[in-house]
Amino acid sequence: MTEQYDAPLVKTIAVLGGTGKEGSALAMRWALNGYKVIIGSRRQEKAETVAGELNHEMGGDYVTGLDNASAAAAAEIVVLSVPYEAHQLTLEAVIEQIQGKILVDVTVPLKPPKVAIVNVPEGLSAAQEAQAFVGDDVRVVSAFQNVSYVKLRDPKANVACDVLITGNDKAAKQDVIALVEAAGMRGIDAGSLANAIVAEALTSVLVYINKQYKIKHAGIHITGIE
Q: Are 90 and 103 contacting, i.e. CB atoms less than 8 angstroms apart?
């Protein structure tokens, strides 16, 4: 990833669950493209440790680590990248800090051990459940469910994957499209937040494809858009 993107719409991103594989990979790509990035975790010590490891790998002081609530409070956009079982608990911990902000929900409602089979939660999608819980003052946008961390983890790698973006606020979706581009991918406006059910469900399909064809980074590409 050689092209550098400006970040005029937002200066600070908090990645809650940034100590995980997907969250840390996205955090690295955004940090290298001009965003101020905060790694969030339930334990600040863990966040600081991972932030230090990422900074060492990137060769500079790019990211910091805080507990989830402090990270969310300091950010303009909050990215939620946690396992589904931690989804509700994490939202409960930061609900006050994310009011008036954009929440990018990366969560997929996988149901171990059968993660290659689509699981539709009671609220139809994790993103819709998030919106119902946090209220209308938070602009929830669903994105990044169908991108493999294997490619993201190498900031120089060509990911070659489109990102489906759903949400009820057009301006918020445009901000997230900018994040997608800064991470080296193409963002596709895929409609309202109700459509998040499709992007989330596709993750299980891609997990199955990875296993079936013995690969690690199956993704999606929307044809017909130049």
A: no
Q: Which amino acid is at 201?
A: A
Question: Scanning the structure block, which residue is given the tokens 């840390």?
Answer: 24
Burial of 119 (0-12, 13-18, 19+ CB in 10 A): middle
Domain boundaries in the chain?
Answer: 12-212
Per-position pLDDT tens, the chain of length 226: 434 445 444 479 999 998 899 999 999 999 999 899 999 999 999 999 999 999 999 999 999 999 999 999 999 999 999 999 999 999 999 999 999 999 999 999 999 999 999 999 999 999 999 999 999 999 999 999 999 888 888 888 888 899 999 999 999 999 999 999 999 999 999 999 999 999 999 999 999 999 999 998 889 999 999 7
CATH among 3.40.50.150, 3.40.50.720, 3.40.50.970, 3.40.50.300 for 12-212 = 3.40.50.720
The β-bridge relationship of strands 102-105 and 77-80 is parallel
Residue type, 73: A
Question: Hey, how many other C-beta atoms are within 10 angstroms of the C-beta on 11?
Answer: 12
Identify which of 104, 72, 80, 69 has the alpha carbon closest to the alpha carbon of residue 20: 80
